[in-house]
Specification:
The complex is a heterodimer of chains A (407) and B (568).
Chain A lengths: L1 H26 L8 E7 L3 H16 L4 E7 L2 H9 L12 E5 L3 H6 L8 H10 L2 H6 L1 E2 L2 E2 L2 E7 L1 E4 L11 H5 L17 H9 L16 H10 L1 H4 L2 H7 L4 H10 L5 E4 L4 H7 L4 E3 L14 E9 L6 H10 L3 H11 L6 H5 L7 H12 L1 E2 L4 H20 L5 H11 L2
Helix pairs in contact in A: 2-15, 9-19, 18-19
Chain B lengths: L2 H68 L8 H15 L3 E6 L2 E7 L1 H4 L13 H8 L4 E5 L7 E7 L9 E8 L2 H7 L5 E6 L2 E6 L29 E9 L5 E8 L2 H51 L14 H34 L4 H20 L7 H12 L10 H4 L7 H8 L1 H11 L4 H9 L20 H16 L10 H11 L6 H13 L13 H5 L1 H5 L14
Antiparallel strand pairs in B: 1-2, 1-5, 3-4, 4-5, 6-7, 6-9, 8-9
Helix pairs in contact in B: 1-2, 1-6, 6-7, 8-9, 8-14, 8-16, 9-13, 12-13, 13-14, 14-15, 15-16
Classes of the chains: A alpha/beta (407), B alpha+beta (568).
Chain lengths: 407, 568
């Protein structure tokens, strides 16, 4: 009887053991048995956003069980969204984001984006152009995957302006039909104004690394822009809330001969069907320096809070493939950042791309430090406020405001 | 297949069948519940998207009305100024394109570059839809959709400009591109969003690849699915937004891969697999246990039958309850009892004949048998030999019938008090062989016959009939020889004086190695000294001899139950 009881106990122990193992195995369900959907936020819109989405989806196809969900934002809402990452609403968190390089300072300072793993960083150092690497670097550490470069250029109508303008004064004096505005620029946008400021001041960065605003240079710029300011039609365009749209529309209707634009406007220009040419922004006649535009880089960053950081790094890395870079460049009129993409010459085959490349070679990289960014933003905000406030008044008031109000 | 395997297999099949049935029902219910949840969630998303779209239409209408009030104040001398003013309006209402028509001509317009610059968004004036054209001509607001299919679709809202004295009729048309950006904001996180006017697809997000085949008119899209999602149709939900002035109902259609269903399927299959695996293990354990319980009595029956066939006449199986197996065990025991009775009757008869023929008493035979068994126990106790129940039975039969050959010897020779001559001696020496032949003829007792044949062989080879020595002599025969000698020495005999046990032991030790096996001698002495009085008893209450008596025959017992030491 004793032996039989022992056998019974052993049998029950075996059954209980099996049940425990099964319960353990069942409770160990892996959430990763499903496809991961990476949320990618971008401030690009229109064709550029579509192109980016296609490239990211293609990149996801090379990574097992990953899909991408592209979320479109305007620039300010994406910036706010990123600054609120890690907040109380994890369901809305992004995994990847496309950002301009002047956001790196604040994002790294707040530790909202993660440093690149060593392996990826080494590949970047080997293949990406140096200026683009500098744009995503902080203390020799890389925080993003630069995927394209952009720079402001002068877009002009080759029918109205048969020769590439050598100076802005040439534009103002160009023989144009009545009602045609020779030149326009977003006067309230410090990013657009910086190339002109650069033509009158040595550097846009102080020795302490902060943004340098020279009131004298600003005054000279605006005085040089007097022909624009004094033309009510041109001033209304240049001080409008949305000058870019007006530039495109009026250029398409041949009511505007030239304007300062970024590559993001190229698809719109192409769609309206008006011939256009691209050249580096010319300086004012007699200026001290060339009009060096700021070169911006758009980079994919992996959000530190992302639960799929490894996958996000893998996907971002695939956008540095030369073929992918060329696709993006062709669709968005931006420039690639990988040396291999330039090797074939395909990146500069487009005349517009050639103009952008010349402008980039002539340009200056925006320092990606928080202090420079902050100064640049502050100056930009005050410039915008001053231009809006004085849009209907004489130029002298604006110049006075800028001398007093902008640091 | 053996019965054990069949029993385990039947349990496994039973468990698998049960798991399959329960798993199927569970999977069906879980998938149905998940599909309903997914459908409900997507339907809610569609309703929310339709509401958002309705708000957007309202915003566009408000923009159109404000534009209508703005148009009379637009500078007439500066087309650029008019464009800038309209552009500011677009900024304020976040609309993409506004056009002003004077009569049948577009007089001015403004658009935003990101979504409104596509020339295909130019309003076809007047619209081709008769209802819309009629409303516009009659000075009413009108809302309709332009484009779609292969080109960009756009929502148009037309508002008449308040008439000015002597002026031409003017209308403002505000355009909202029905593009991916709009659709993606209507249902964020949904894989595919489509806008339809009636059955006509206006636009879809994400846009189909340029080399993709032309999509069906219903707007259904084959979603790229990975994993188990491919086994499910995508979840679809539609929601009506509004009815346009063209009479077309505008609706939103969402499609999402059945991710939750795929996850449910994955988890259900995993749980199903684990449960089935666990069930198989449990079935194996249970089946094995049940097989052991059921087959143990059968195995006992099989072993008992085999033992009986080998001549183990004392086999008796333990009772197995009132089941069919219990009844079979009872019948087996009854059959074994009958067989045993037959043999016991023969043995009893032979024993009585030996008693009658020789001057040995019944007590001698009884003592020899009991002392032989006790010696076997002592040998086992000392670890020098082992005796199975069969060997014990054989030893017992041989002990009882060890002198059965004497029945064929003349009584004169057997009971002669004086010395035997050579002829008589030779006659006497034949009795082991004769006894063995008698026992062999009884069948099933070949081993006992061999022991009887060797029961007078001496350890040093000086015995008879074959002169075997040492280990050539079965140990049972060596035991019987020593025990018979001891009893002969310690019992009253007509031709010799009875000796004391000590003298008999001394004699045995003196002959150890010559006549007797020293090991057996020591075991015998051990048995005698353990309970010296016992061997003086006149009758036995244990052992085979008890079975020879009529009372014993009526109540046969399990020979295995005879007192003996544990044999390891």
């Amino acid at each position: 009887m004793g032996t039989g009881s022992g056998k019974g106990r052993r049998g029950w122990r075996a059954i209980l053991g099996v049940a425990a193992v099964l319960a353990l195995m069942t409770s160990c369900g892996d959430e990763r048995d499903r496809v991961v959907r990476l949320k990618v936020g971008t401030f690009w819109g229109g064709v550029a956003a579509e192109a980016l989405g296609e490239e990211i989806r293609l990149a996801c196809q090379g990574v097992e069980a990953v899909e991408a969900e592209i979320q479109l934002f305007n620039m300010s809402s994406l910036h706010e969204r990123l600054l609120s990452e890690g907040g109380p609403d994890p369901a809305s968190d992004l995994d990847l984001a496309l950002i301009p390089n002047d956001w790196f300072g604040v994002l790294t300072e707040r530790a909202l984006i993660g440093e690149l793993p060593a392996q990826q960083a080494n590949v970047l150092r080997e293949h990406v152009v140096t200026e683009a690497l500098l744009a995503v670097s902080q203390d020799d550490r890389l925080f993003g995957y630069p995927i394209s470069a952009e720079v402001l250029v002068l877009v002009y109508n080759p029918r109205l302006l048969p020769r590439e303008p050598r100076s802005l004064d040439d534009l103002f004096s160009a023989p144009l039909a009545p009602g045609v505005v020779p030149f326009s620029i977003d006067l309230a946008n410090i990013y657009h104004l910086t190339p002109l400021l650069a033509s009158y001041q040595e550097s846009m960065t102080r020795p302490d690394g902060s943004f340098a605003w020279d009131p004298a240079a600003a005054a000279r710029v605006f005085r040089s822009l007097a022909p624009l300011w004094n033309d009510p039609a041109a001033r209304s365009i240049a001080t409008a809330t949305d000058p870019a749209s007006l530039h495109v529309q009026l250029f398409a209707e041949e009511r505007l001969a030239s304007f300062v634009a970024g590559p993001w406007l190229i698809p719109a220009l192409a769609s309206v069907g008006r011939p256009y040419a691209v050249a580096p922004i010319p300086p004012f006649r007699g200026s001290l320096h060339p009009a060096r535009a700021l070169v911006g880089y758009q980079s994919l960053v992996v959000i530190r809070q992302s639960p799929w950081g490894d996958l996000a790094h893998n996907v971002a890395m695939r956008l540095l493939d030369a073929e992918s870079q060329l696709h993006l460049a062709a669709r968005t009129a931006r420039l690639p950042v990988v040396r291999g993409a330039f090797a074939s010459g395909a990146a500069t085959a487009n005349p517009a791309s050639l103009g952008f490349l010349r402008a980039m070679e002539n340009g200056q990289t925006m320092p990606s430090t928080a202090v420079w960014e902050q100064g640049f933003r502050t100056a930009g905000g005050r410039l915008r406020a001053a231009v809006r406030a004085r849009a209907g008044g004489p130029l002298s008031l604006l110049i006075t405001d800028l001398a007093e109000g902008v640091p | 297949m053996k019965l054990r395997g069949q029993l385990i297999l039947s349990h496994v099949v039973l468990v698998l069948t049960g798991t399959l049935l329960i798993g199927t029902v569970n999977l069906f219910l879980a998938l149905r519940s998940t599909a309903e949840s997914e459908q409900l969630a997507l339907a809610r998303a569609a309703a929310a998207g339709a509401n958002l779209f309705q708000y957007r239409i309202d915003a566009v209408r408000r923009a159109a009305h404000e534009a209508a009030t703005l148009v009379p104040r637009l500078p007439t001398d500066s087309p650029t100024g008019a464009t800038v003013a309209l552009n500011e309006l677009l900024q304020r209402y976040r609309c993409e394109r506004v056009e002003v028509f004077t009569g049948l001509t577009r007089s001015t317009s403004a658009y935003r570059w990101e979504r409104g610059s596509d020339p295909l968004l130019h309003t076809h004036w007047l619209p081709a839809e008769p209802r819309v054209a009629t409303r516009i001509a009659s000075g009413q607001d009108a809302t309709w959709v332009q484009g779609g299919g292969n080109g960009p679709a756009s929502l148009k809202v037309c508002v008449p400009v308040p008439a000015t004295q002597g002026g031409q009729k003017k209308w403002v048309v505000v355009t909202e591109p029905l593009d991916g950006l709009l659709l993606s904001t209507l249902a964020p996180g949904v894989a595919s969003v489509a806008l339809l006017a009636g059955d006509r697809l206006l636009s879809r997000w994400p846009a189909p690849a340029t080399d993709a085949p032309e999509e069906p008119a219903t707007g259904k899209t084959p979603l790229a699915a990975a994993g188990l999602e491919r086994f499910f149709d995508p979840v679809r939900a539609s929601c009506a937004i509004t009815v346009l002035d063209s009479g077309q109902p505008l609706s939103l259609r969402l499609e999402d891969p059945a991710v939750a269903s795929a996850v449910t399927l994955t988890r259900s299959l995993r749980a199903w697999f684990l449960i089935a695996l666990g069930g198989l293990l449990v079935a194996g354990v249970l089946g094995s246990g049940v097989a052991a319980r059921l087959l143990a009595p059968l195995q006992a029956l099989l072993d008992g039958t085999a033992a009986m066939a080998r001549g183990h006449l004392m086999v008796r199986l333990p009772p197995q309850g009132k089941s069919e197996l219990g009844a079979l065990t009872v019948e087996f025991n009854r059959m074994a009892d009958e067989l045993r009775r037959t043999y016991m009757g023969v043995i009893s008869t032979l024993a009585e004949v030996v008693e009658a023929k020789s001057h040995f008493t019944r007590e001698h035979i009884e003592r020899v048998e009991r002392l032989a068994m006790a010696t076997a126990d002592a040998l086992e106790r000392r670890g020098w030999a082992r005796f199975s129940s069969q060997r014990r039975f054989t030893l017992s039969v041989a002990a009882v019938l060890h002198d059965v050959g004497k029945i064929s010897i003349s009584g004169d020779i057997l009971n002669k008090s004086g010395p035997l001559d050579d002829g008589e001696r030779r006659e006497i020496l034949t009795h082991p062989e004769r006894g063995a032949l008698i026992v062999e003829r009884m069948g099933k007792l070949g081993a006992a016959a061999e022991i009887i044949r060797c029961a007078h062989e001496h350890f040093n080879g000086s015995g008879y009939p074959r002169g075997l020595k040492g280990e050539e002599i079965p140990i049972e025969a060596r035991i019987i020889l020593a025990v018979d000698a001891y009893d002969a020495m310690t019992a009253d005999r007509p031709y010799s004086q009875r000796r004391s046990p000590e003298e008999a032991i001394a004699e045995l030790r003196a002959e150890a190695g010559r006549q007797f096996d020293p090991v057996v001698v020591e075991a015998l002495i051990d048995a005698v000294q353990t309970s010296p009085d016992r061997w003086a008893a006149s009758s036995s209450d244990t052992g085979l001899y008890r079975l020879l008596n009529p009372d014993g025959l009526s109540t046969p017992s399990d020979f295995n139950a005879l007192p003996r030491v544990r044999r390891g």
